[in-house]
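Incident log, support desk, overnight shift.

02:14 A customer reports that sequence design results differ from what the structure should imply. Their input is reproduced verbatim below. On-call engineer (initials T.W.) acknowledged and began investigating.
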């Protein structure tokens, strides 16, 4: 914490020195994120849920019944090289239209940022079992037999199986756990960082992020729901595949707006 404080103070000193009036430090501005969702080029909202109307890369028809996911650790890299990581997290709940936007807990200094990133899920040191009351209330916990902590995503729906019959899928993302020895669980952090690229922040800024839901089933792992549909949480390899697909190109920067 002391190290982060020293970095932040150094950052303030750099930008303040560039001010036309050395006696007046640069003012901080708010940073807001909004999340929209699409199936390739078609917008998706909760109004599209519970209807088999989407076709994945493997040619399987599906519906979406629930979609919510966790983002955390917004990090900004200034063009000077100073890195600022903001605390806080947000549970984006597409199903109920909740938390589709959030403002970071800390304001930031205006400037040109070479990279703006956030994390999908929690990194291991933040993924502490039971400590986030709002996530507990939302039943976003991971069972103790799988190591506890929290989900990264709950994505549920139905698909048409080989008999053209509706069957459920639960595409849930968590920290991967190898339960070969139930008394000695082996974990792998499958959260991932999403790099939105360069962003210029001049005033109160909204960063608009889009999730292409289609991509969860596409690349680099072509997803066959007849094989991988439910009970994916204790499946170590399935969690690695979910993480790889998410990190590839599920999220992208749609636009940046300034007030």
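02:41 Re-run completed on a clean worker. Output:
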């Amino acid at each position: 914490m002391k190290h982060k404080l020293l970095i932040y103070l150094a950052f303030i000193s750099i930008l303040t020195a560039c001010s036309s009036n050395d006696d007046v430090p640069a003012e901080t501005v708010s940073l807001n994120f909004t999340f929209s969702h699409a199936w390739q080029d078609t917008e998706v909202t909760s109004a599209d849920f519970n209807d088999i109307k989407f076709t994945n890369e493997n040619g399987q028809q599906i519906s979406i019944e629930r979609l919510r996911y966790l983002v955390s650790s917004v990090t900004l890299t200034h063009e000077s090289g100073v890195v600022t990581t903001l605390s806080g997290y947000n549970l984006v709940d597409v199903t109920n239209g909740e938390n589709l936007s959030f403002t970071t807990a800390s304001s930031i200094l205006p400037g040109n940022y070479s990279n703006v990133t956030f994390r999908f899920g929690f990194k291991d040191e933040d993924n502490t079992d039971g400590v986030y009351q709002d996530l507990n209330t939302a039943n976003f916990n991971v069972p103790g037999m799988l190591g506890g902590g929290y989900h990264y995503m709950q994505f549920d729906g139905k698909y048409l199986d080989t008999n053209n019959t509706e069957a459920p899928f639960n595409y849930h993302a968590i920290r991967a756990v190898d339960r070969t020895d139930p008394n000695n669980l082996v974990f792998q952090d499958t959260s991932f960082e999403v790099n939105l690229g360069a962003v210029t922040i001049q005033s109160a800024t909204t960063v608009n992020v889009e999730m292409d839901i289609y991509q969860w089933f596409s690349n680099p792992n072509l997803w066959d729901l007849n094989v991988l549909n439910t009970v994916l949480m204790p499946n170590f390899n399935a969690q690695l595949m979910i993480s790889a697909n998410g990190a590839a190109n599920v999220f992208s920067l749609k636009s940046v707006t300034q007030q």
